[in-house]
Amino acid sequence: MIQTIDGLQFKQMVLHGAAAITAQKQRINDLNVFPVPDGDTGTNMSLTIGAASTELRKGEPAAIGEAASITAGALLRGARGNSGVILSLLFRGLAKTLKGQDAADGVLFASAMQEGVGAAYGAVMKPAEGTVLTVSRLASKRAVEAAAENNDVEYVLAEAVRVGWNVLEQTTDMNPVLKKAGVVDAGGQGYLVILEGMLSALLGEPMPEPEEAPVQQAKADFSALAEEELTFDFDTVFIVRKNQPEVDLGPLRTYLDGIGDSLVIGEDDGAFKVHVHTDIPGSALNEAQKYGTLELAKIENMRTQRDDLAAGRKAQSVDDLEAIEEELEGRGVAEPEKHYGFLAVCAGEGLATVFQDLGVDGVISGGQTMNPSTESILREINRVPAEVVFVLPNNKNIIMAAQQCVGLTPKEVVVVPTETVPQGITAMMAVDPELEQEVLLETLVEAVKNVSTAQITYAARDSDFDGFEINEGDYLALLDGKLFGTDQDIAVLLANLADQARDRGAEFVTLFYGEDVTEEQSQKAQDIFSRRCPNAELSVLPGGQPVYYYIVSIE
Question: What is the b/e burial string over 423-432, where b = at least 16 CB atoms within 10 angstroms of the residue's CB?
Fold first, then answer.
């Protein structure tokens, strides 16, 4: 049994732990369901502790206090996502207890583990049972008990890992979301994989290697998660450099808890890192800047990530804040050649062509299930050779991300709150470059009110919604963002939408057909609308959009 560990041994333990979770990160991603199945817990935890590995490899810290301090500092700066922040806090508490120590025995190491749990619980405003917090708390509790039985670090860590795995199996029944999906907590498993890797280092076992092929195991059933289980849309993470070391973050915690949930704040003497789920990420950033200087930020749309995974698609994510910062710093801003410029968001070559024909300066590829990040929108804004750039998000889940660009560029950014592609097209048709800026914005907003948008897509899962019994694979029709109907025959939905357009007295109807619709099928859709809307001017164009079979503009 190994009785004590020094800095070099601790370094090797962290390197082992990082390698272990890197090898199993996809398994952990597949388990991720809380609070939203964005499938990135394993990746986030792997990248977080990977940052510590990078720093530790730069030196040979002899004292455990020094090695733990290096680890904690790197984890804070490299923390990604809620799980990464909590992991950094667990190690920060560890470092606090080990500070100034040359070596640690079982009792000291167990005490350090408990200090880490205290730091993690203290940072989470509303701790939930059945999470990594539960696993780490009961594992550290056993560590303290084990240290009283045998003061060897090896024994203490082995017992903590053993009990941790037992607790992890119980998390399925502790948390209703996990129980519905039939899996254990992803963050808890990630933490135990790291601890087990650290124990392997003590036992002299070889460094884990990444898996070459996926291993069949429990995987979250995303279709079991209902819409109402997601309270807020945006996963918001940012780092602020403190104005002063002893700044009191209590008022900030209270404010952020009032506008969101899943709040975690980690800090050291120089900076603090926030993770919060909210509908108003801009307000969270503005409030935090009262305490220091904003350095990095990440905003992701959890609702579309959840829908992507439920439909078997890859969720779009921002993984590396430091890489984004470097990319933005190296990107120039186009010199203005005119006063007004226009930028549109859409998915599909046909739709992009329509916007380009209407005079937009740039098109950002994105939309439902592929919301572009604030950084990608900002990049395209900077490329527009104009003093004032009007941005047409064309999706309600992109509007707020676009609004975050205001103030981040020397160009003046004006976000037109278009929620659909037809609204964006109508807005561009109303552009008059001779108008004053405020009048032009009012004109575009007013024009958007005259268009209704219908969309036909598919059901990604079984559900009962708004009086409709929906089966996976059914066709769904949406009208102005609300569920209009569902059927196994797309022609039925097209006919009902055509009747709706006729009853509204539509003068112009445009059908944009998607990448999965053939010309023959689009002709049938055109025939349906022609028969039922004889007084409307009808156009049918290839949009090439994914997800939606048809996007219909009704004016």
Answer: bbbbbbebbe
